Amino acid sequence: MTRLKFFLAAAWWGSLTTLGFVVVPLLFKYLETPAMAGQMAGRLFTAQTWVSVVCCVMLLVTTRRENRDAAETPSIWLISGLLLALMLEVGVKPHIMARDNLMLWHNVGSLMYVAQWVCAATYFWQLLPSAKEKTVDETTVDDA
User: Fold this and answer.
1) From the CB of residue 82, how many other CB atoms can be counted at a distance below 10 Å?
2) What local confidence, expressed as pLDDT, does residue 142 receive?
3) For the chain, counts of helices (H) and of strands (E)
């Protein structure tokens, strides 16, 4: 596992966590009106989409470079997270911003955002070394 893959997965999951579970709720708590908070949240979610896309594409490229000779396919969690980010931006967000059946589209968007967060968390978790791998790595370092 490269440090770059670990960093990118951490940035992807951490940015989703921070924006979705800290920043946006604070916007709705402290801005003057829900409309102002919604406009700002929409802009922030667009930025988050691009963070997700960049992290996912770089993870795909990094994984491909590491596995040039292997027939290993990219993680379903990585591909799913990338697709969810793009679908949120181009499929769901326009309905929310137009206030078109707002309750429905907001719920769909929230569900897709949480699903993307689960994809990022699962992918990140899979990159973490297991206790067995850590023991082998520490032994190797100690023997050197």
Assistant:
1) 21
2) 53
3) 7, 0
Q: Are 74 and 62 in contact (CB under 8 A)?
A: no
What distance in Å separates the CA atoms of residue 13 and residue 119, rounded to the nearest whole number?
Answer: 9
The single-letter code of the amino acid at 105 is: W
Q: Is the pTM of this model over 0.90?
A: no
Would you list the domain boundaries of the chain? 3-143
pLDDT at 25: 97
Q: Which of 18, 16, 12, 83 is nearest to 54 (CA)?
A: 12
Q: Is the pLDDT of residue 135 over 60?
A: no
Question: CA–CA distance from 24 to each of 31, 37, 98 (Å)?
Answer: 10, 8, 19
What tens digit of pLDDT does each residue of 22-36 get?
999 999 999 999 999
